[in-house]
Amino acid sequence: MAHPASPADVLVDMTTMAITRRGFLRTAVAAGAALALPLLPALPTPRVAACETEGEPGAPEPCDRNDRLTRPPGPPGFEPWWVQTFLTTKVWPSPDEMMEPLETVEPERYFRIDGPQEGYRLPAWDPRENRLVYVGVEAIGPVGTPHWADYSEDGRWIDVTLTVQQHLVAMQGDLPVFKDLVTAGLDRRTRPGFYRILRRVQNETMDSRTVPDATKRYLLKDVLYTQYFHTDGSAIHYNWWASAWGYPGSQGCLGMRMNGARFMWDWANVGTPLAIHY
Fold first, then answer.
1. Residues 6+ apart with CB under 8 A from 272
2. What is the pLDDT of residues 55-92, one digit of tens each?
3. Superfamily designation of domain 7-20+153-277
4. What pTM value is reported for the model?
């Protein structure tokens, strides 16, 4: 746990929201014909400004990775809608029937329809790969918007479970890409809610004197891969002094082992959402 971020860094703070795993993961699925009216679109994701960088704490530097988002805006007046495949089918790079398919996808794969039908295919955003593809109308049906689509712009989000064994899962849409144990806050100091990574420091010094409500004194140097998600100083970071992985042991941070913290540093970015729940 380190010094708190400034209020300017705040994007989302819903720390008073009580969340259960069942409630968080519940999403409505509406069956219907493939040509049914489209559902409401996913909510847009706000932007976060700058982050701290190694060697210059407090020095703003843009951290957005321009290659993260490939989803195009739909045509004016078009309302995107979500579908799932109900057959094993192929996806293509264009509506051209002469093009080779990109891959074969399994049933229950999510796609967001981002434009009008072209021939027998629809342009769709593939959240697992963050890319534009075309899917055949014969293999899809409309469904409710998946819960993660409301706050994930490029399909990436972090699912954090505070129940023992405490762990986080790096998610690409509905696909888990990495899972590891964490040590979260003692006495429920890591609060359930929806957050975003606000700023990042590759090599941080954490000092309890900067945290007014710290329950014990500490001065921790070389805390690597620190990604703050709350103004109280809570962050994902390498925790070299912990050993009780999967159990509470921090002042509110999500402490990780080296490999996990490094993966999350490389995979996530400023603005990546976290959903923390029991």
1. 156, 157, 158, 196, 197
2. 444 333 334 444 454 455 567 889 999 999 999 999 99
3. L,D-transpeptidase catalytic domain-like (2.40.440.10)
4. 0.73
